[in-house]
């Protein structure tokens, strides 16, 4: 990984945002109508108005302009306004904040066993497979007829459920059952953007359903990953055969369609879905959505962070994808400390394909191609990128000369267009096959695709070799051998090259991602509206598809949270996350440190957080780090938010303590010590943590610290004693860093850990320690 620098400007800008929140707005300069989200102090409503809606319509905007009214996780509304109207509303004394509606993107079996789940014992058994826990999935909808959503052998719908099954295009109330207990769709923000001539184009109604029905496939895949029922003889065109099941097979599903094919997901609709899901009575929310630019917005301008806080403050666990911006540093998204942020790792299954060159070289890659094989026949091999034309090298639409590629296998560089779309371009130009070569950014990271022609993806090293062969041979030839499904792959897990990495660009005191889960080549249910490539020209239909992304990792954690919630109904969202983090694996199946798929090197916690989720241990973590709503408010005070800005997030008025809290004392299961690069010699920081005993009542834990070179970690006390009456204990960690002896990695950080153990290998409660040198801010 290339070395990165973190300039003064970044930290200055972050603190400027926190210190002067009402002076920063994301408004454009034109006067076209667009959607805005307005946060209102609900206490200001005059008693003459019977509802918030009546007040908003009378005071702020004509009723036809109001899109959504929010009253649960957020108080306010969204409306179609001009810039002048928005500016007028912003000056109203009851308005706390106003921001533009933004477009978000989707972050796009064997994996339950890889998480440590077993049928006859452990968390599946103790939680009754997540029975009666309700998972709300905010995504592209669902294809309800899939076997993964059967309600066979499920009991009645939980009596606390208050949701609905909304009818719409090709979807009726009858499509719900005791498994899929709720389905809604949210279009107002999307429609307002489309109708106002927004930058995203008019949605093609022939390819989309104005209903909870899924025309994209992403939502069906994530929902079945989290809570799909057992399905026998599952596979994707012969790949990954076996029994498919979600992480929490008996959990109930409620889907909230907020994302639309070809036009994305809009903040105003996402916030409305959060509001509705909380009122409906979900226990877990799974959201595999985030910004497309890899930049984390301040919490008070981020409806995912705002909606998630409203849910978490009511005891609802929220799992979110960490983004697909890796392997670059500081690309993790959805970093609010109340969110559980999930990165992606591999499992011990792969779909190998071998490229055989005319000179006898064999290059390893992956593919999910399931059509007629090449049967060893050698074809001419061509690399259009030799011309130096970028569009040809990446096989963009209309970039290939049929005279050059007809009847040949074509080498296409990755980038600028979807991987499977490149295969379509090659096929249209008359090519018989494709080799998809990674560039330096993707490195050696590979994901399988159900290509429409014989095709194989290879890493940057193999890509360089095949291009060198083409350049050095007058008549280069090749063939591709597709080898099906291979189990028992080592090493696994490794961190996916695309998985978003730390450090946390908003608040580096909080380590993100929190952990990783399976997110590469995951088999799950699929829509019947489109083929496995997602291309309109792909006429194939399959019950299951294999996808990769942090979108696929997130629902694994959502399902895991459902299991833990079922086994421990009294646990808070923070307790559930703590149990996952402090028991996570940091080693692969060779018992070696986890590595980076991009380059094969040992990876730091900036890539995997606390580690890879291990549910066999998370069920019984021994100790947990709990966090209250007040703790989160104090954290916001600590990072510089003023009470009015905090109220945008928390809904309730906030009072910051007279003595400013320290952000690093949020009771998080990891510890990040930030030191200035200006510090010379040794410098120390103290951290306070409190653990709650959820194991044996009478227990004694002793501490073990592992510190990197140049760092000293001391803990007081070194022993924690718990009894029937003493369930909580606090301790102080002092981290001392000697800048002259630190051996920093590319991220200007070093890493260690502390663990509390109770003897006999019963429990080891591990917390990652990050020691980072950052440029000092002038504020």
UniProtKB/TrEMBL annotation:
It is found in: Secreted, Extracellular space, Apoplast. Transmembrane segments: none annotated. Required for arbuscular mycorrhiza (AM) development during AM symbiosis with AM fungi (e.g. Glomeromycota intraradices). Belongs to the peptidase S8 family. Residues 1-26 form the signal peptide. GO terms for cellular component: apoplast. One of its GO terms (biological process) is response to symbiotic fungus. Residues 379-464 form the PA domain. The active site is at residues 139, 218, 551. It comes from Fagus sylvatica. The keyword rRNA-binding does not apply. It holds the Pfam family PA. Keywords: Apoplast, Glycoprotein, Hydrolase, Protease, Secreted, Serine protease, Signal, Zymogen. The lineage of its organism: Eukaryota, Viridiplantae, Streptophyta, Embryophyta, Tracheophyta. This is Subtilisin-like protease. Gene3D superfamilies: 2.60.40.2310, 3.50.30.30, Peptidase S8 propeptide/proteinase inhibitor I9, Peptidase S8/S53 domain. GO terms for molecular function: serine-type endopeptidase activity. Residues 130-609 form the Peptidase S8/S53 domain. Residues 35-107 form the Inhibitor I9 domain. Residues 665-771 form the Subtilisin-like protease fibronectin type-III domain.
